[in-house]
Amino acid sequence: MYLNRFCYLLLILAALGSSFSLHPYSVWFASVSGLTLLVYGVDKRAAQKDKRRIPEATLLLFGVVGGWPGALCGQQLFRHKTQKQPFKTWFYLSILLNLVVLVVLYRWYALGYVL
């Protein structure tokens, strides 16, 4: 339970830290991607030691909010969550959603709309 709350605290701290940056979106994606890689490693270690795990919903949330590059690296590096269904399906849908949102934001930015 505390591990899951700690994960959400890390996301909040990453959001606060990136908001004070000159390039908040770049800092956000880099920091949340690194955190996601770390979270996958912690979850894999917990699985190996038969300890309390990070819920799949939390792992998916980290990917949805922009940490999917770190999640992809974590899956391959730690050989974690690479075969489990339906996690894999939801994970790839979250990547697709992220890419669609990034394309839309890029188009809006290119057309001069301000968010």
Tell me about this structure:
This protein has helices at residues 2-19, 24-48, 56-78, 87-111. By secondary structure, it is mainly α. It has one domain. The longest helix is centred in the first third of the chain and has 25 residues, at 24-48.
Counting helices, strands and paired strands, the structural category is: mainly alpha
The count of strands amounts to 0
Uncertain spans, ≥5 residues at pLDDT below 50?
none
Outline type: globular
Q: What composes the largest sheet?
A: none
Whole-number radius of gyration? 15 Å
Query: What is the terminal-to-terminal distance?
Result: 36 Å
Q: In percent, how much strand structure appears in the residues?
A: under 5%
Task: Please tag this protein with its features.
mainly alpha; 4 helices; 0% strand; globular
Topology:
Blueprint: H1 2-19, H2 24-48, H3 56-78, H4 87-111
In short:
The chain has helices at residues 2-19, 24-48, 56-78, 87-111. The chain is mainly alpha-helical.
